[in-house]
Amino acid sequence: MRFHDCYPVRRGGILQNAARLAAMLLFLFASGCASIGHEFPAGQISTIRIGQTTQNDIYTTFGAPWRTGIDNGMKTWTYGHYRYSLFSEGETEDLVIKFDSRGIVSSYVFNTTKRSK
Q: Going by C-beta distance under 8 Å and a sequence separation of 6 or more, which residues neighbour residue 19?
């Protein structure tokens, strides 16, 4: 088996690839901001009821979670939007919801750096 069989060689030399990388980094630096995750309807958090709201209810209200995981054996869904900026104050929001074995909300935590208007 040859190296090219597993790792196809792309056209363009090292200098061309380095130039592309430099252009992308310059663009990111010039724009001065980066965003991770996706926005979610934070105004709907008050509708969550511990012991009552189902996983399906959460999906219907908030959509697909940005991340999923397990915490102490409980399924967790995370909704998050993190915006960082070099030239202004960034904003972050996240909602972490834990579900019991029946798919009912066991607990949730909401954090934000957005100021109330």
A: none
CA distance 20 to 10: 13
Segments in the chain below pLDDT 70: 1-13, 15, 23-32, 116-117
pTM across the whole model: 0.68
**What three-state secondary structure class fits 60?**
helix
From CA 101, how far away is CA 91, in angstroms rounded? 33
Phi and psi at residue 80, to the nearest 5°: -150, 145
Q: Which of 68, 83, 78 is nearest to 113 (CA)?
A: 83
